[in-house]
Design goal:
This protein is α+β, with helices and mostly antiparallel strands and 102 residues long. The protein is 12% helix and 25% strand. The longest helix has 12 residues. About 10% of the residues have low confidence.
Length: 102
């Protein structure tokens, strides 16, 4: 899946054969601010760094549903709002979701 910037997507897992397998699989790409936030959190001793994640249900050009993702540096008190002023990345044509019905 091609994006103009960082983002991600989740697709139905058509290879699921047991309840232990995930319902959805996909990927997330991080921008420099999100990646640096993880490093900063680890350097401060945070054992489980966090990002703000948002998702939008979308439909591919071929009519298949998927979830478009955005992962951002967490909102911090003091003015920087990473999760309040954003838009979902718009996916380009994706051949990966051709056979993924929801």
């Amino acid at each position: 899946m091609a994006y103009d910037g960082p983002g991600g997507a989740l697709f139905k897992n058509n290879k699921k054969t047991s309840d232990r397998h995930p319902d959805l699989t996909g990927f997330v790409e991080l921008d420099g601010d999100a990646a640096q936030s993880i490093v900063d959190q680890l350097n401060r001793g945070v054992q489980h760094p966090k990002l703000d994640v948002s998702g939008w249900t979308k439909v591919s050009q071929k009519g298949n549903k998927f979830i478009s993702l955005s992962a951002k540096k967490p909102w911090e008190k003091g003015g920087q709002m990473s999760s309040q002023n954003f838009q979902a990345p718009e996916p380009q044509h994706n051949d990966m979701d051709d056979s993924i019905p929801f």
